[in-house]
Amino acid sequence: FENYVQNSDFFASDNLVFGSGGGLLQKFDRDTMKFAIKCSYVYIEGRGGVSVAKDPVTDRGKRNKPGRLKLIKDKNQKYVTVSSINDKDIYDDKNVNDELVTVFENGKILKEYTFDEIRKNCEIDLDQVDGMTTL
């Protein structure tokens, strides 16, 4: 590394990324909570909204829901993700409250949280999150 830095005319601090794999200190990654962010819907100027879905035949566990999504509470107060495509009746129900809040959209911050608000939001009952299901 030192040799690279001393002999490179193209060095910039944002050109390097350091990391470690293999869980050297602790095993914590997106698979720990079975979490990943995936595209499910795009708006194309002149065409409108388009549903997007990943559905690999080699691993059904990696597929995602197509369409616009809502996070709702079911009758047992458990969080459930519903899709405008797969769960249209529930998604369109005006009596169903979307628990998600739009924070950032089209380059604009719509909602800011204080550190105290973030801490309070982290105090949710983990039983509501554990084993999150989809309809």
UniProtKB/TrEMBL annotation:
The keyword Transferase applies. Pathway: Cofactor biosynthesis; NAD(+) biosynthesis. Keywords: Glycosyltransferase, Pyridine nucleotide biosynthesis, Transferase. Pfam families: NAPRTase. Residues 7-107 form the Nicotinate/nicotinamide phosphoribosyltransferase domain. Belongs to the NAPRTase family. InterPro entries: N/Namide_PRibTrfase, Nicotinamide_PRibTrfase, Nicotinate_pribotase-like_C. The keyword Transferase applies. GO terms for molecular function: nicotinamide phosphoribosyltransferase activity. GO terms for biological process: NAD+ biosynthetic process. This is Nicotinate/nicotinamide phosphoribosyltransferase domain-containing protein.
